[in-house]
Amino acid sequence: MYIKIRHTTRYKYTESVFLDPQTIRLRPKSDGSQRLISFGIEIDPVPDGIADIVDVAGNDSTCAWFSGKHDHLTITTHSEVETLRKNPFNYIFTEPSVAKIPVFYPKYYVPSLRPYYMRNTEPEGQVDQLVSSVIEESGVDTTTFLNALNNRIYEGYEQLVRHEGPPYPAEITIGTGRGSCRDLTVLFMEACRAVGIAARFVSGYREHEMITEERQLHAWAEVYLPGGGWRGYDPSEGLATADQHVTVSAGVIPEEAAPLTGSYRGSGARSIIDYEIEIESREMLS
Predict the structure, then answer these.
(1) What share of the chain in percent tops pLDDT 70?
(2) Which is it for strands 178-179 and 158-159: parallel, antiparallel or unpaired?
(3) What DSSP element (H or E) covers 126?
């Protein structure tokens, strides 16, 4: 599928501020599941300097730095992407130890994957109770468990739009029974980590919008499956991701996939954020 994206983010400050260096993660990935055709970025005010970098999580990012004081920051990106993965299950496990849960990765995977399966929740807590309930339904087959977990969160939690703020911890989402896409993603990740599955947070776009007509930057999870690589699960939809999702950035923690990281300095100044996302899509001709 061909997907064209225009994404504008506007920060307005209540008084002029000094902008510290900003790291922008809005360049879609180019890998086995999608091909980046073109990408452009416009920044206002014009930075003193700009550098394309690979950040600590391996995301293609842009670092921009400024001088002087400014009352706004506007970032507009233009992306054209061809998504390639029509079947999210076109793989076979190359390591028998990951076919059943709990998952045990071979020792040569451990140094790279350890951060992705380290837990942030207490054993025997609410996340483990959720996991036990899902296993009772699905059994211990890894793929069946992942699908059942994804569907359980989709059907069992009210979805809401929350424009700002970090994701809530998994226990809060369980306690309230509702959450934004990033809250549900964190819950899915922690449930995966509870059974040893490496999981990471993904930020990007989906070709269609589920909750409102207003386009949102979206979040979902990816799990690492030897033989399949990183595979996406979207608990906001209850589906494994395929060619309608465009991955932009990913990380062990949500902050590593944040679209913008940076601060400003100004006594008493506050920021107001506004954004606009336009997406066009069509099937690619074979």
Answers:
(1) 97
(2) parallel
(3) helix 126-138
pLDDT tens across 129-157, in order?
999 999 999 999 999 999 999 999 999 99
Angle at 209 between CA 206 and CA 211, to 5 degrees: 130
- Helix (H) or strand (E) run with residue 199 in it: strand 199-206
Please give the DSSP secondary-structure letter assigned to residue 96: G
What H or E segment, with its residue span, contains residue 264? strand 264-265
How far apart CA 53 and CA 205 sit, in angstroms, is 21
For the segment 210-234, the average pLDDT, to the nearest whole number, is 87
> 58, 55, 52: which is closest to 77 by C-alpha?
52
Query: Residue 115 is encoded by which pair of tokens?
Result: 């951060």
Average of per-residue pLDDT values in the chain:
94
| pTM of the complete model | 0.94
Say what the pLDDT of residue 285 is.
65
Lookup: tokens for 91: 């793989």
| Nearest of 2, 4, 5, 75 to residue 217 by alpha carbon | 5
Is residue 204 pLDDT above 80, yes or no?
A: yes
Half-sphere exposure for 160 (CA within 13 Å, toward CB): 13
Token representation of residue 222: 């990816």
Q: Which amino acid is at 46?
A: V
**Pairing state between β 69-83 and 22-24:** unpaired
Q: Is 268 helix (H, G, I), strand (E, B) or coil?
A: coil
